[in-house]
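Risk register update: the risk of archive-format incompatibility is retired. Evidence:
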Amino acid sequence: MKKQIGLLLILFLSLSSNVYAEYVSYTPLVDSLETISAEDIPQHIQPLAFETKEELEEYLSTQLSSKNSIKTESVEVANPSESLDKLLIYATRSSGSGSYQTSTIPASGASLNLKTLYSYEQVPGMTTHRFTQATGSMSLTGFTVGLDIRDISCLSTISSRGSSITTTGTCTIDYYFLIDGLVKLWSDDFNMEHMIFITSVIY
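Archived output:
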């Protein structure tokens, strides 16, 4: 009998600890959000409203738990390589230009984009090509209610031989939430990088 009671007690404690772990999993994050006044909200920002604290907890757990999948876009004569953060350009003419963009998902429906505009030319007297210009930029697009991007820094560097471009970008995204009449602020830093390579195609 004592053995059965002991087993039941262990089972009860085990179940209780699991329930407690689930309950507090996101509460510390919600409680740690900074409360700001309405005057501190940028004029172009409309906070994302939540009716209950549990809804905000669910949003934080499902939308902000990680920096999600990356996608690529390319224009002109660029063909994506197998790697999502690298692009290989097959140059088939003496000069050209295009763009390459990689994106990450800071929140559901929103995209944080790192874009490079580039130009290239054929090396005089040779059959190879090189990059001549590269400019990087970052943008926040899609469903951006409650989101604001700031402190953007981008750098595009062409290698010494002109065969590759490396673009890096950093920024901070502020998340504005409205709950129980209070405005809450959450900030997250993002770092992105991609590379572009060029090779010559001889016909």
